[in-house]
Structures are given as structure tokens and as C-alpha cells.
Amino acid sequence: MVTTTSHVIKPLTPETFPAWLALAQKHNGVWGGCYCSYFHGDTEHTAKGDYDGPTFKQRLVAEGVAHAALVFDGEDAIAWCEYGSPAELPGIYHRKQYDAGEANPAPWRITCFFVDRDHRRSGVAREALEGALHLIAQAGGGEVVSFPNELAEGKRTSASFLHNGTRAMFEKAGFTFERHIGKSKTVMRKTVPPAHA
């Protein structure tokens, strides 16, 4: 658990899943009912097509193959940052283009953010990102790759377009730009030392 300003970061676990689900349901499952499962694949025990979104995600959490840093305001989850291994989160955008240029696959990737509509544009996504990096450090650290959007200077866009944050936010968190993939996505990387180091 990490405290940031008045907020607390907690990992997504069976105990915090109800708060995560309440946030997702408040926003109609987020992005058309995704329930933050788009980037996940099937597991040995759970096939995405066999369950509705909330049940699929809950099963992955119970199996220990769904990770996120949740930002709590009191008892309520107000944001999350999803992260995990490439095996947990294989479904990235522009996968062929990314794989073709990837000489050094990272053991961790950050794939999406979601912020409660009542807390947007207040730095909560950045808190979620820092929380995810802290949880990755606790899990042993290592290289982390992500695919934030690069916005034209002065351009504002909808939160749904920015499901993976912005290049500027990742640069402020110490990530290094590597390359572009697709029309507006970037590949950015950071090495996170283990928490005990």
C-alpha cells in the first residue's frame, strides 16, 4: 500500500476487486463494456468467450494473472493502471509492428488507465502510474514498456483515446522514448529497480 497525497494505492486483488468493479460499473463497464479485459488473453483455466466481462476479470484476478494499481479515495477506487507480463497482456495495439522492432522484450508492460469521470485532469492517472511502478518494484522490478499516445502540442482529446496515457506523462515518470508505432502510439521504456535494492 502506498499513500499519494490524500489517496492510497492498493493492488488489484480478490479483496479490492469489489471496489474496482464498482468503478467499472459506474462507467458502464468502461469503453463499451470492456471491463479492462481487452488486452488479456485466455488462460489455462479461463477462456474470455465463456464469461461476461466482470466474471472474466474476476477469474483472472483470482488466478493471479490480472494486475493493476488502484487509486483509492477513502473506500472508493477512483482510478487504475493495468500492468503485467506480456503473457498476461498479449493483446496490444500494433502488435506486429511492435514485435518486429522489439530486440529486447521487457518482462513488464503497462497497457491501460482508467480514471473516474469525477476525478479526471487532476493528476490521478499519474498517481496510478507511480503506483504501478511501485508494485512492479515490489515484485522484483525489471524493464517496463508501455505504449502511450503522443499528442500534437496544444491538442486536447477525449479520455477514451488516451486509454494508455500520454508520452508527456510517461516522460515525467522517467520513461525513455524509443519509437513510434501506428499513427500516434509510442514505445517507451524504463528500468525499475527491485524494491529491496
From TrEMBL:
Residues 7-193 form the N-acetyltransferase domain. GO terms for molecular function: acyltransferase activity. It is an enzyme of class 2 (transferase). Keywords: Acyltransferase, Transferase. CDD domains: NAT_SF (cd04301). This is GNAT family N-acetyltransferase. It comes from the Bacteria. Its EC number is 2.3.1.-.
